[in-house]
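Sequence in, structure out.
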Amino acid sequence: MAVFTPLDDSQVADFLTRFDAGRLTRLEGVPSGTENTTYFVTTDRHELVLTLFEQGEHEELPFFVALLDYLAEYKLPVPGPLHDREGIALQSLADKPALLFPRLPGKHPRAPSLGQCRALGDALGRMHRVSRRFEGSRPNPRDLHWLSAMHHRVLVYLSADDQTLMKNEIDDYQSYFAEAEPLPQGALHGDLFRDNTLFEGDRLGGIIDFYNGCTGDLLFDLAIVINDWASDSEGRLEPARYAAILEAYQARRKLTAAERDAWPMMLRMTALRYWLSRLLVVYVDPPAHDLSPHDPALFRRILGQRLAHGALPLPEETGS
């Protein structure tokens, strides 16, 4: 979240008349973020978040609206967008696509507690269970096809050892998944890091920022969560957080035999996914705005740990 397009009170007050959301009482720009303009909007009836989309494929925004509407119908802790008086959510403001959301309670967890890990695992398991029936489709933009196509662009910036590592990893993924049983599919968050969640203590207030949302392997989503939520600063898996997330998840959705077999490989592949995407931002395609990119080294360490030590054992199946 950030402010790249300035708005004044009169613009936002006029925008709000399209909705049954009350009268503007306060407008506050949100300075942090990387891609879109974000404001906190307070009315005499609601606390809201206004997002203007600065980058990306704007034609894909209806997919995100449909996904959030669908998940909100199932009472998942997501910010279902407000629809205007004509039933339309996706709007235009200052010549940018715009969406208005309820402001969800809580803060991003820096060092997740076991209670927060259990709450996140439970919510993700519920989300994946219902998302298998979501009828929308958007191919995963960061899947194995993307890794295979894009890794060549960063090799020149890597040491000889890391070049070999990256190429060998992608060869391993291609060989494994070409022969593996198909994995369960559904709608994914696609980027469920700690800073895309909001907590009040151990209570999950919301899962936000679905703009990497897509459809694909559910296990891909779960592996992203584990690599972020259950890794220490050296990339090692922390057993208690790992177990808390996965036990809560599996109480909602059991992993299939194919998913359990693919688990160590998926942890490696999603680690490389973020190592590569961060390298691309640093060396090839810097952000349009003056923002500090994330350090690629963390996910290089995570990948190294997954190669050296594999995955911790998966908890026993308890869900349905």
